[in-house]
Structure formats: structure tokens, C-alpha cells
User: Fold these one by one.
Assistant:
Number 1:
Amino acid sequence: MHTLSAEVRLAQARARLQKSRRWATGLLLLACTLFVAATLYAGRYPALAYLKAFSEAAMVGALADWFAVTALFRRPLGLPIPHTAILPRNQERIADELGWFIENNFIQDKPIAVRIYQAEPSSKFLNWLGCDAARTQWLPWLAKQIPTVLQTAKPEQTARFAAMLLSQQYSGEKIGQTLSDGLKLLKAQGLHHTLFDGLLRRLRRWLQNPDTRELLEQNLREWAAKIESDAPSTWEKFKSALKTSLVERVDDWAAAKALDWADGYLATATADADNALRRQFDAQYDLLAERLQNSSQWHRRLDAAKAQLAESPALRQKLADFWTGVQSWAAADVEKSDSLCAAQLEKLFDHILAQAREYPQFMRRADVRLSLLVRDFVLRYKEKAAHFVAEKVKSWDSALMVEKLELSLGKDLQYIRINGTLVGGLVGLVIYTVSQWLA
């Protein structure tokens, strides 16, 4: 893995190229120096003829390889020699060949799919889910992304989509089964009690409101008056034993006490997990889910109401308001220390781990499906990837392309010059030696 910046790596590549160039050029200059010295003193020292042969062949090899290496990238000495500056002149053809080579030799669907399967991504994912770092670091972060995800869907768009989905995709039976599944899912997660507690708290706040109490007390007094007229034999006997003013006070007191009793009962139901009202709510909740799931009468009613509901502006507004409320609730919830979103994510993590331990074959099937998805993805897009590479290379400035290739390959190509100098010199020495023996 590269950890250095692009500028540093570029500077290092240029330094390596310059160093190898100096070595190759230095050997050429050394061969020239040896050739001149051997030529000047060969008459005085006959053995220098062997050095002359070596240096002469070394110069030829060095120059030939310099020409070959230089011709790849540019014209040697700027001369318009045929078949030089090979890379910049054939940039488009090289780009197409490079794209084809990558497509057919690197982006291969089956080997990539096999590597994905052998990597066992499901096991790695489960190990990540089970480690403490995922719970302490990533889980809060994931929870805080939920509002962001919800915000991507605008309330008006969500309402239109839900209405369209309701109208086109759902029959009365399917609507009922979907609602039933939703109710069962809420109960499986314990959220139906959260809903029940929320309803009780809202009802208590409504009962405790002074305006509400005054209205309900008035209704209770009217109800008592109705009892007086409907059942005189019972109520009138009670009233006859009391004065009228006292009766009115008793009516007010009874109404207040009735409301206080109702509020106290709701408070008890909120605190008591085994309250009769809560049990009745659970029973009615289950009954509603069962009827939505199986009742053909409910299905017919839902189907009859579907079209009207889908076109209802009021329904769309309610859906938009509901989605806005969900977004606001999620944004506020994730900031709490006892966030429900974070708790549900943790439950989801635990559920996945439990299911994986109980059904290990499922995780292997998940690996198979993931590898097949990758295979199909590669088959679909490998040609586009190759085309992208080719177009990218074609779009490079020729000088930029030459620089990139020379910095990548230039150091190794300079060793060709070095080897050409040494090998050429040795070959020349061998040829001269053999010629002397044959003479």
C-alpha cells in the first residue's frame, strides 16, 4: 500500500530514473575512453588490441540499446527516423490494446467470483459484528445516519409514492396482510407496548387539561341529568333525600372524582405490565392482526376503500405529516443516551449473530449469492471498464503519457543499456579473440 503522497513518489521515481541513466551513460563514456586509450597505445602495447575490441563492441552495444530505448519514447536526437517515438505515435492503438488486455486477462468474472467466495465475506462480517469496536464505535455512528437516510425521501414524494403503491400494487387482501405483518413485527420488537404507553400518556395529558376537564365535567352533569329524566324511580328517590344545592355539588364532586379515577387508572395501567387494560389491549391487538390477515370481509372493505384512499388529498397530507414526524422523531431519538434506534440496531446485530450460529449454511449461501452478484456485475461492466481505461489513456497528453511510462519503466530500460554495453563488449572481445586464433 502506498502511504507517500503522489508528489513524493513522483520525485523518487525521477531520482531513480536519473541515477540509472547516469550509470548507463557513464559506462558508455568509459567504453569511449578505453577505446581511445587502446587505439593510441595499441602499437606500443599489442595486448591493448583486446581492450580495443572490447571497448569498440561495448560502444556499439551501448549506442544501439540507447537508440532502441530512446525510440520507444521519442525521436533520438530529434531526427525524423522511421519507427521511432513508438509510444506517442501509437497512443490510440496502445490504449485500445491495453483496454482489451485488461478486459480479457484481469477482469475475469469466474476467477473474481471464486476469490470472493474463498474470502468468506460473511464470516468476516460476522466477526466484525461480534467485536466490541463495532458496538462501541460503529453502532452509534450507524444509528446517527438513520435520520440522514430518512431525510433523503421528501414527505411529499413519500406520500405520492405510498398512494401510487397502494392504488396499483395492493389488493384488499394484500393490504390486510401487510398491515397484519406490520402489527406482528411491532409486537415482536415490543413496540406495541411503546405505542400503548404513548396513547395512555397522551390520553392522560388530555384528561389533565383544564379545558378538557371542564368539558368532560359538563358532559357528566348532562349525563346525570339524562339519568334523572330516564330513570326517575332511581335518581329522583336519591335527590328527594337531599337539597337541590347539595345535589348540584354532589354532581360536580362526582364528575371530578370520575375524571380523577380515570386519570389514576390510566397511570396504573401505564406503570403495571400486567394491568387488565393492557391485557385487553394485547387481546384486541392480536384480534386486529388476525382479522387483517384472514378476514375476507375486512379484505373486501379494504379493497373498496383503496381507490378512494389513494386519491384522497387528506390521506396524502396525513402520509406526508406522518413521514415528517418520523424524520423529526428519528433526529431527536439518535441524540438521546437511550436511543431507541441504537437499541434496535443492537438487537438487529444480536439477531443476525444468533441466526448465523444457528444456521451456518445460510452464511455460505450468502457467500455464494454475493460471489454470483459480483460475477454478474463484472460480466455487465467489464467492457465499460476496459473502454474507460482506453479512453483515459487516449485522453492523456502524449508528453504526459511518455513521462508516466518512462518513470514507471525507464529505470528497468536503462539496465538494458547497461547490459548492452557489457554484453556487447564481451561479445566483441570473444569475436576478436576467435579471429586471432583463426588467423
Number 2:
Amino acid sequence: MSLFVVITLYFCSWALAFPDIPTSIRTREEQPNTFRPICPKVFVIGMFTDEGEAWYGIPEFNVLANNITVPGISPLFPQVHCTSDDDVCQVTTGEGEINAAITISSIAYSSLFDLRHTYFLIAGVAGVNPKVSTIGAVTFARYAIQVSLQYEIDAREKPQDWNTGYFPQGSSLPTDYPSELYGTEVFEVNQQLQEIAISFAQTATLNDTADARSYRALYASTQSFAPGAQGPTIMACDTATSDAYFTGGLLGDAFENTTSLFTNGSGVYCTTQQEDNATLEALLRAAATGLVDFSRIIIMRTASDFDRPYANQSILNNLLDEFQGFGPSIENIYLAGVKVIEGILHGWLNRFEAGIKANNYVGDIFGTLGGTPDFGPGSIFVDGKAKVQKRGLRDKKRLRRRQTLSSDS
């Protein structure tokens, strides 16, 4: 067999194995005149199998009617699923920050989609702080905080007067604001849209189980955990992102402090998950090039387990018992989330197509999309250009201090 024939057979077999790739990697300008990108009104983002399957086989709509293979998204979940009219699409990113970032970036930059008017519903489960809420609850966040993006000392070696081994980068105390920022530490989404989403979700009847009620009751003996002992509700509170799946009172309290510190006292540490800041950074970069509207993001997390043990429970038992409220949390993704989706679809023409104007700051800690963040040291941009490298703040402060000491001497 000649080399030419071998090469020809190879490329033919490759094309048959991946029939969607040639079309999907074209730019919009290169698409044939008959091509029309998918323009979903709502795009639902889940992170693992159970979160994705919460939307399959439901009576309201069928997201499995149109299945689109998208290069670059998770090899475990290689397709975006859409309704026949393309009004609702759903994707499962894979767990963790890297999976979330790459999947969402691949979709945002794919020529298969036009997402400029799309609402994004992040819909997944999370750990929950019993000081604020409980298992089975449905939470909607205004802030997402990347709590693990800090310096870390093993707790066995931390200074004796510290209650945590985590402290902000570029600082010397857990109470100092970081002087080194990467830009993904905090995101703020549209508070007006958050409130609308909550009002839609509040029309749902949440799922609960006897097992979840029994587990909640174990938290009643600790006064500060009273919210954790109550039944599930729908509420506004904020979410913490960490690739490491953590548990315990010390870490919970440390990240409660981080949430408050990084948001200048505005954020309430409530849920913890592994993806949201990565998803938001991918969407923010797409928004900076006009591909998505960052003010159309809803962060919904349902609580599946407590982030710390009840009185006299071992820390290991709390960590390994992941099914404290897992069943209700998965059910409530759908029960609350479908009300949000239906509310947007039903009010599309007279309310949502034009967008919901935010009265709060919307964006990242750098001020990348314009405006002045109401947390952190303020925007790094002047006239659309970055004037200060945030990682250099520490060195600039040290230089000013040395100059001051020199002049005083």
C-alpha cells in the first residue's frame, strides 16, 4: 500500500470519527450562508453527572432534543444539550476549576453558539455553613470568592496565636487584605437578577427527606448552628470556591473570614464548591470581547452536606458522609431551577430580552469590564488600560516604606 493511500485512509477515518469538528472550528465568517449559530435564552451549567441528569426527562422541556459535540469541552461530557427550539441548553463541565474554565471557554468561543443575549444559570450542589443555612436549601450568590487562593501554612506549624494557616497573599496576617492579586479572587454578579431569580425559585416546593431532617437535627444542640437545624429554604448568600474538598470548623471559620475580608465585609460565607470562580473568569473574558453579557449570570447552589461536623462528630466522619442531603440537593436543582428558567422564558419579550439593569457593580476584582469594584483596592484600569500590576503592589508599598524611612533618617 502506498504512503499516499495510507495518509488518505487515515484522514478519512479521522473525519468519520469526529464529524462535527470541521464545522465547529470554523469562524462565523467562514460558515456557509445557511449556517445559523444556536442562540439559547438560558444556558444551564452543571459540573458532574447527577447535576446534569437533573435536567433530563423533565416534563417542562427536553434538553436532549438537540445534542451538539463541541471541541474543547470535557471528554467525559463532550456534548452540549439543547431543546429543539434552542431556547434552553445545558452542559456538564466536569468537576474542578480547570475542567470548568476550559469547558466554558470552549463554548463561549465556539462558532456554534451566539451567547450575547444568553442567561447563564450555574446550577450545582455545594457544601453549606450551618451558621447560615442547611442541607437541601437553595442559595443564590451575589459574590463568588476563591478562598483557597492564599498563602497556606500547615495548621500544625502555624503561629500559635493564629486560628488558621491561611492568610492573604502578600500579607503577613490573616486579617490583612492581599497585596498580590491574580484577578480571580472575587466576582460580583447582578444583584437585581439575583433577586428576580430568588422570587421565581420561591414558587417551588422543595424536596426534603426524613434522613435529611434527622441529620439536620444533630446540629440543633449548637446554638450558632441553629440555621443548620432548620428546614430548607431559598435564600441569598455567597459561595466560596476551592479545588480542595475541605471540611472542619477551623477551615470554615477561616474562609468565613476570607469571604468577609475579600468583599470588604459585604459577603456572607454560605456555600462551598469547586468551580464557580473558574466558570466566572471564563465568562468574564468572553464578556470582555463582547461574546457574552456578564450581567446575565445566576449562581444557584443547593446544599448537599455541611462544611463542618455537629457536636462530638469526628471530622473524618463528616467529610466522608457526603450524602447528608445529597438526594434533596439534586432534586432541588431542578425544582427551583426550572422555575427560574420558566420565568425567564415567559418574560422574555417584555423583560429579559433587553436585559436586567444592574444597580450594583458587576465584574471581577480588577474592574476588567468597567466600573469600580465595591470590594478590594479598586479598578486597575484607567482609560481602558491596566496601569498597575496588582502583583507588584507589595513591592511598591515596600519601596514607599523604604523611601519614607530614608527621608526620616
Number 3:
Amino acid sequence: MTTVAEAPTLPELEQRLALVACGENTRPGKTQACDSCRKKGQTLLRITSTGAVDALAAAICGTGDRRVKTCDPCRQKAVRMIRIYNGETE
């Protein structure tokens, strides 16, 4: 018998995305986002829901302008966040 995992609530998903933006993969053992990333959580969730990698990367990178080239680590975070949002396994 297979079990279906429960989908995270919006606040849980928001916290998860903020943690990824904060650098979860680059800091082993990190379990919470910093205050700055946590405050961006709702915005990150909204942008992630659109699937717009460039806009999301700009929000993570801090430029706020999707016309400005973002760094590769922030683009990678954006792609990862969209995968998490879509329920893809990591």
C-alpha cells in the first residue's frame, strides 16, 4: 500500500522557500531562515507560484529588478524553489 504525503500548508511552504533562499544547501544544519529572508517569504511564495525563474532569482538576489542579471547561485535557488512548490522530489 502506498501512502500519499500531505501537502504542506501555505505558511509551511513559505517558511521552506525562505529557508532555501537563505542558503539552506550552503550551510549544513541550517534549519531556519534569517529575518530578512523570512520577511520575503510571502513575496517569494507568490513569485514561485508563477514559475518565473528570472523574477524569483531577482527577488532572492536582492536586485528586485528582473532585467538585471542575477548570480548563478540565486538562479539555482529559484529553480529549486519552483520544484519544491510543484511538489517534485529533491
